[in-house]
Design brief:
Blueprint: E1 2-5, E2 16-19, E3 29-39, H1 41-46, E4 64-72, E5 84-88, E6 97-101, E7 105-107, H2 114-117, H3 121-134, E8 142-146, H4 151-162, E9 166-171, H5 174-182, E10 187-190, H6 198-212, E11 217-222, H7 229-233, E12 236-244, H8 257-262, E13 265-268, H9 271-277, H10 279-294, E14 302-307, H11 311-319, E15 326-330
Parallel strand pairs: 8-9, 8-11, 9-10, 11-12, 12-13, 14-15
Antiparallel strand pairs: 1-2, 3-4, 3-6, 3-15, 4-5, 5-7
Helix pairs in contact: 3-4, 3-10, 9-10
């Protein structure tokens, strides 16, 4: 079988497409013929050894897959050969076949294409955990989403609206703003792509405040980090919740005096660790996502697909912050 693997630390250009042996599922595992693998920001970090987890090389990146079960390992129950499944696997998805623990899989709802199924877990899973468990979202809240046109950002727009919130989408271009509006955003703020000086940072904070309204943002959902975090924090409401989700623009240096002045919280959202520590709640939230999808309240936007041989290009698109919605690698 073919796999796109990393053999040494480096960027997407270092990935190698090669023939490797098909793995055999062990006890509690199934062999999945991968049909689609969604690309996520951790994939860009992992191959550069910048992520929390550093798998032993060589390995295929790609932590979110959808496909068809080809073989069952010993002791697997509740699944059969031919079932359509999706799974979060950490890494290994940029391959034609992969072994997956059965307790980490979910049956794909009827009518959902593989590309959309592969785009659900990490983005919407992160966001439902972030908004509900860390942000304590409630109807009537105002939610400011940074990076609102990416995969995680659009999931935050859709889920916040589904939970009865008003959404302010912060994006890097008017075109991305239109994508966020189509997903349900009530207001859009376009922030500069280039480095900001102090006056520009204050102007962005003022734009966030104007869009959020006089009471500010009850929740800031920060997927971007860097120079954008402080202006967003300045727009937070009294006792608001600032959720740290990612930092492709860099790790922010936050003036902690603002947390005192607003009596607000800064909370981390580490979805991967949450799924391991609280598997029952994780499974319940995935079922809730399926219900929301069935009701038409969420719908992953797959903007581009790439074949396996061009999987490095797919990762580069995300790394360069060019992605709108989700980028997916398909095996057909």
């Amino acid at each position: 079988m073919k796999a796109l693997r990393t053999h040494a630390t480096g960027g997407p250009e270092t990935l190698v497409l090669e023939e490797i042996d098909t793995p055999e599922p062990g006890p509690g595992q199934v062999l999945v013929a991968v049909k689609a693998c969604a690309i996520n920001y951790p994939d860009t970090l992992m191959i550069r050894d910048l992520y929390q987890f550093k798998p032993e090389r060589p390995y295929a990146p790609g932590g979110e897959i959808a496909g068809v079960i080809e073989a069952l390992g010993e002791g697997v129950q509740g699944y059969q050969i031919g079932d359509r499944v999706l799974a979060g696997i950490g890494n290994g998805g940029l391959a034609e076949k992969v072994c997956v623990p059965a307790n980490r899989m979910f049956a794909i709802p009827e009518g959902v294409p593989f590309e959309k199924a592969a785009s659900l877990l990490m983005t919407y899973g992160t966001t439902i955990h972030g908004l509900k468990d860390r942000g304590h979202i409630k109807p009537g809240d105002t939610v400011l989403v940074l990076g609102a046109a990416g995969g995680v950002g659009l999931s935050a727009v859709e889920l916040a609206k589904a939970f009865g919130a008003r959404v302010v989408a912060a994006v890097s271009s008017p075109e991305k703003g239109e994508v966020a509006r189509k997903a349900g955003a009530d207001e859009v703020v376009v922030y500069p792509k280039d480095m900001m000086d102090r006056d520009q940072s204050k102007a962005l904070a003022s734009a966030f405040k104007a869009a959020c309204g006089p009471d500010g943002a009850n929740i800031v959902y920060d997927i971007v980090g860097g120079q954008y975090s402080e202006p967003a924090l300045r727009a937070i409401a009294w006792e608001g919740r600032f959720l740290v989700v990612g930092f492709p623009a860099g790790i922010a240096k936050m003036p902690l005096n603002l947390t005192l002045l607003k009596s607000c919280d800064i909370a981390g959202v580490f979805w991967g660790a949450f799924t391991m520590r609280e598997p029952a709640k994780f499974h319940a939230q995935v079922q809730e996502l399926f219900d929301l999808m069935k009701a038409g309240k969420i719908d992953p936007l797959v903007s581009e697909t790439f074949p396996l041989a061009r999987g490095g290009e797919a990762i580069a698109r995300l790394e360069n912050r060019q992605a709108v919605g989700k980028i997916v690698v398909t095996m057909d």
